[in-house]
């Protein structure tokens, strides 16, 4: 039996407003009817998992909470395991409240143990200065919620992902430690996602060649590239990457799954 990890952005929803593709609900219902184990995975750092579930529900996508995994599902466990409690956060107010609710201290100065980096549409000079000073002066850890290089916005334009901001701090501060990847498709993320899932073979379905599919293939996971998101098929040759399968719609993916043995 196979199990599916379905990327949210670019596979099930078309934009940051979480507007679903026309065939998203039918596809998820098909998986339920056929008993195909699946989880929806996302590198979204703007909302905690429970709020994401509610936002998706408002768009007509109904998911049980245990069916959704994001880096924010993993981040609190990682911080506690490493004894990190005082934080400077580049991210949304929702992210800050989520961490404070988990028992962490979020402050607006550089005297911290770690700099948490999520998506922040109000990123400015002072935030970058505080983050840089935290790493350079306080030996703070650099902890992006994911290593996304680039993110497509709703207007079709692009901006640097959390991973790109983290790499900027690494370069500026001559940071020598490893920067962990708490997002997909890191080993920590994948193991967390499939921990309670039946099935022998994992398929990651994603529109992101560089962040998701290359990393997944390195872990021995089957890769399915969807052309419905931020990269066109022509990008594969630029990336020198060959996924296991390529589909142009969820209907095509459904037709493929119908051919697989249960």
UniProtKB/TrEMBL annotation:
Keyword presence, Hydrolase: yes
GO molecular function, a single term: phosphatase activity
Transmembrane segments: none
Presence of keyword Hydrolase: yes
GO CC terms: cytoplasm
Residues in coiled coil: none
Gene3D superfamilies attached to this UniProt entry: HAD superfamily/HAD-like
UniProt xrefs under InterPro entries: HAD-like_sf, HAD-SF_hydro_IIA, HAD_sf
Keywords for this protein: Hydrolase
Pfam families named among the record's database cross-references: Hydrolase_6, Hydrolase_like
PANTHER family the UniProt entry points to: 4-NITROPHENYLPHOSPHATASE-RELATED, HALOACID DEHALOGENASE-LIKE HYDROLASE DOMAIN-CONTAINING PROTEIN 2
Protein name: HAD-superfamily subfamily IIA hydrolase-like protein
UniProt organism field: Hydrogenobacter thermophilus (strain DSM 6534 / IAM 12695 / TK-6)
Taxonomic lineage of the native organism: Bacteria, Pseudomonadati, Aquificota, Aquificia, Aquificales
């Amino acid at each position: 039996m196979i199990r599916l990890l379905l990327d949210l952005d670019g596979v099930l929803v078309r934009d940051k407003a979480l507007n679903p593709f026309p065939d998203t609900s039918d596809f998820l219902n098909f998986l339920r009817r056929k008993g195909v184990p699946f989880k929806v995975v996302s590198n979204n750092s703007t909302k905690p998992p429970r709020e994401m579930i509610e936002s998706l529900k408002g768009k007509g996508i109904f998911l049980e909470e245990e069916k959704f995994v994001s880096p924010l599902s993993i981040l609190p466990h990682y911080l506690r395991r490493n004894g990190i409690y005082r934080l400077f956060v580049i991210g949304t107010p929702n992210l800050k409240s989520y961490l404070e609710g988990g028992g962490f201290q979020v402050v607006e100065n550089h005297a911290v143990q770690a700099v948490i980096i999520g998506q922040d549409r109000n990123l400015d000079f002072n935030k970058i200065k505080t983050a840089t000073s935290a790493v350079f002066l306080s030996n703070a850890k650099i902890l992006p919620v994911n290593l996304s290089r680039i993110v497509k916005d709703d207007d079709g334009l692009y901006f640097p992902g959390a991973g790109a901001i983290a790499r900027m701090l690494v370069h500026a501060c001559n940071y020598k430690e490893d920067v962990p990847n708490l997002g997909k498709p890191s080993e920590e993320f994948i193991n967390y996602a499939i921990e309670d899932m039946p099935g022998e073979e994992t398929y990651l379905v994603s529109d992101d060649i560089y962040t998701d599919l290359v990393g997944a293939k390195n872990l021995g996971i089957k890769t399915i590239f969807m052309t419905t998101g931020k990269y066109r098929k022509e990008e594969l040759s630029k990336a020198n990457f060959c996924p296991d399968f390529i589909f142009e719609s969820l209907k095509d993916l459904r037709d493929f799954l119908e051919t697989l043995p249960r």
